[in-house]
Sequence to fold (325 residues):
Amino acid sequence: MRRTLVTGAGGFIGGHLVKRLHREGHWVRGVDLKRHEFVPSVADEFVIGDLRDARVCADAVRDVDEVFQLAADMGGAGFVFTGDNDADIMHNSALINLNMARACATAKTQAVLFTSSACIYPERNQLDPENPECSEESAYPAAPDSEYGWEKLFSERVYESFARNHGVTVHVARLHNIFGPAGTWRGGREKAPAAICRKVAHAEDGGELEIWGDGEQTRSFLYADECIEGLLRLMRSDFPGPVNIGSEEMISINDLARMVMEIAGKRLELKHVAGPQGVRGRNSDNRLIRRELGWAPSATLRAGMETTYRWIADQVENARSTSPT
Fold:
């Protein structure tokens, strides 16, 4: 039985990954500051611990064959792009990765997969919402538009350095906007798909739907199940990466909002307001993952959004029914 550590196991992607690994017969240890907010973890062992503490990291990697390092201080645009959380993002996530890289090298862990982000790509290549450039080799000269992106790029190099100097087998995945059920949908750290689903679920037919900026900024969004498939394929390969794991189905935020309204059967007027937006355009470039892994995500955005909207609409209804009158 393969023994696997998932850090960030109390989070959205980590929760889905633990579930998949458990189903495939792995013995799984999860580590996080908290348990999963929405679903009980099926991890064989779940440790409440702070990975900013090197001792917690050393204990976490004990007797495991492989590590999926997902832990980070992160959130959506309302958390990452305001500037208010930059110091915590840089300090907390960098410290986690420095500790984990050293712990894995000391324990001689067989393989480590680090989840980086599409936010590492230079802002200059993402000014045109119709033609963003996000091929893996375009990351340098580096110029991310956020401290979150800078930290992720720094941590990529940390793991690559430990691979060179200490013989650690490392895989690096650059994730593009993962969404799906059982993720944060309110509170300020939610991402665009969840935020729009929540707003539409709350709205009365004929009302308004607030969108940050002009809504013409573009993104691609990858459903959680396909993200997990990509992570597992990368870990099981001989390819170190970095490699994009994302969808190539690019859409504007306005059109994403219209899609959710259609799924919900509501007609709402888009109201554009000031708010953090990030780069003007971003889309996954999947040429490298097709060439190296013989696979790329293929599920439609619409299918994933239908499932996600139903889950968030249920959360909204449950919250309404339990709130004080």
Observations:
- The chain is about 40% helix and 15% strand.
